[in-house]
Amino acid sequence: MSHDKIHILGGGPAGLIAAYYAKQAGMPFQVYEASPFLGGNCRTFAHGDFLFDSGAHRFHDKDPEATALVKTLLGDSLRSVSAPSQIYHNGQFINFPLDALDVARKLSLKTVARIAGENLPGFKRKTNANPNFEEFATAKYGTSLASRFLLNYSEKLWGLSPDRLSPKISGNRLRGLSGGNLLLAALGRKVFESASIDGSFLYPEKGIGMICERLAEEIGEKHVRLRNPVQGLFVRNDRIQGIVLPNGEKISTEHVISTLPVTRMLKMLSPQPPESLLSAIRQIRFRQLRLIVLLLDLPQFSDNASIYFPESDIPWTRIYESTNRSSYMSPPGKTSIVIELPCFKGDEVWQMMDAEICQRIKQSLSDLGLLNGARVIESLSFRLSNAYPVLEHGIENIVAPVFDFLQEFSNLHLFGRSATFRYLHLHDLFREGRGLIEQLVSRLVK
Ligand SMILES: Cc1cc2nc3c(=O)[nH]c(=O)nc-3n(C[C@H](O)[C@H](O)[C@H](O)COP(=O)(O)OP(=O)(O)OC[C@H]3O[C@@H](n4cnc5c(N)ncnc54)[C@H](O)[C@@H]3O)c2cc1C
After folding, report:
1. Are residues 129 and 270 in the same domain?
2. Same domain, 295 and 317
3. How many domains is the chain built from?
4. Quick check: CB of 336 below 6 Å from ligand 1?
5. Do 232 and 275 reside in the same domain of the chain?
6. pLDDT in tens, 390-431
7. Is 214 domain-assigned?
8. Which of 16, 57, 243 to probe ligand 1 with, by most ligand atoms within 8 A of CB?
9. How far apart are the CA of 388 and the centre of ligand 1, in A?
10. Enclosing H/E stretch for 144
11. Is 259 close to ligand 1, i.e. is its CB under 6 Å away?
12. 6, 13, 61: which is closest to 417 by C-alpha?
């Protein structure tokens, strides 16, 4: 039986960030990744001269240490990008985050008056102490605004009606949206000078995947085992004794950092956890994404970084155009768009054959007049597993006993989006990964 101090399960951004900090701290570690690739759900795909990401990604400058590290890793390849985003609503493109003046211009006077009326300054709607997303959004923005832009979009993205979702799904998406501002706009006053401060972000010139690629270079190949889906974890008392690899090899361990979905993690324990927990995790779900990529014989599809589609009769939630993040992403005179269709494993969208889903999406875009006669050079399709934890209203009561149980293992550390069942972004992973390794260093040197 071989021995390493820290075994890191999963080579997505969380696993690579943990490994990077472990290496910096001089701790022995090994990363195990199931697939032939590193980067998990944060990769850049190459097809001919085209590059595109696994869904619309941007690096948010929200944690100064994370930003400084990514700048050091990428040097001049990390660019500051300024590109707007919009919502497609009723055949119109509306700035996002919502810009009161723009909304006032693009919706009918009657609708704007209704929105403004529902958002009179000082007017407070009551909610209960523990609202679901529908109650939360309606109380905060009024029915007219919420039903147009928030409730339908959320239902499509998360696959549950908004009264079954937690307010936590909104993250920062609702920033910049204020009923009072809409009222001022309805009265004809200019409210926001610029469309959106959120239009600025950091982005690597050859795609978001460059961040994981640079981390992997720093970590070094010998510390990574690709095509190695960890099969099991054998436990004794309050410790993980070791991990089991597909070839049956057992490796003893001092610490395990798991970035795998918490549901998968729990099922891998040997001996098995109590039946009550195994039955609880059947209610813990992840949303998947089907990505359709259209390579276009067109210099630009729009000038947006992303376009959001809240309407329920359109099957996708978002389209992003790689070229508007970096000109390196497409050959000269051409562009590509990535269309995101949320789904659950096994449903019609997830299962549809590539050719059929690509054809359907092309047809729908064309029917909406969005392709504008552009020639589609090629269409491709990808599946992304475990893209989002489904934050159902009240899910914390179901996940809490699972995390309480796993916390009993003194050398098991859950880290990352699917492992902790939280809606985490890259800067969160850098911050939490740094903290986790600091904590392990202090424990291992004792
Ligand atoms: C569509 C989309 C858009 C996003 N946009 C942004 C954004 O704009 N900005 C931002 O900061 N973040 C964004 N994110 C979030 C960011 O990509 C995530 O934080 C990240 O992908 C989650 O990282 P992770 O390492 O926790 O999990 P994952 O990326 O899911 O990685 C888990 C890894 O574990 C591996 N694995 C699974 N089972 C096993 C096993 N048994 N043994 C070994 N390995 C295994 C998987 O193959 C995978 O590589 C976005 C995510 C998505 C899906």
Report:
1. no
2. yes
3. 3
4. no
5. yes
6. 999 999 999 999 999 999 999 999 999 999 999 999 999 999
7. no
8. 57
9. 9
10. helix 143-145
11. yes
12. 13
